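Bench notes, afternoon.
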Amino acid sequence: MIEYFFNAAPNPLKVSLFLEESGLPYRAVPIDTKRGDQHSAEYLEINPNAKVPAIRDGETVVFDSNAILLYLGEKTGQFMPEPAERGALLSWLMFIASGVGPYSGQAVHFRNFAPGDHPYPRKRYDFEARRHWGIIDARLRQGRYMMGERYTILDMAVWGWAPRIPFMLGQKEAMEEFPDIKRLMAEIDARPAARRALALAGQHEFQAEFDEAAMRNLYPQIFAPDRDGHAG
């Protein structure tokens, strides 16, 4: 049985969706990152990067959400495109992993959590997050799903992050800029597996409050001294 290390953040939600869609047996292991579970010696043996999600499938350990999606897709043969489309699948999967997620995350960080005033990084990451989401939206104008008419792990990768677009871009109406993403989200949200994936996080009492301990566990660089010995 697969051990699945997760919390309620966007990246684990992608994997929750795959597990629920595929019917693979798994045991959910909650990792409360605000309480610092990710820094335990036991979890660092699973993921030395101290992030979620991760899985342990027998002797095989996989971390990074998109790597997990690819691993599970190849393991089961489910939610994958035709072999001739593998190049496109990998291109879009890496685009989401290296662009959409990081830029969106940095947009949130500099708008909401970074101490001090940082107009340049706020402008840069807001622009890049919007640009990347615009590219995803344009792709979805070409077909029902990211790979045309076939529902794949790419759609799951988008689904994990896209519902938070209004928060990530700092505007309640931001989803209206991306009508085809909005369309895809509504379709996936209606799937029973998506409802089960969302419910999984609610079965565990993850800390909600961003107190100082949570900030230290999530953003230790804020408190780490710089080269002059001053806290960040």
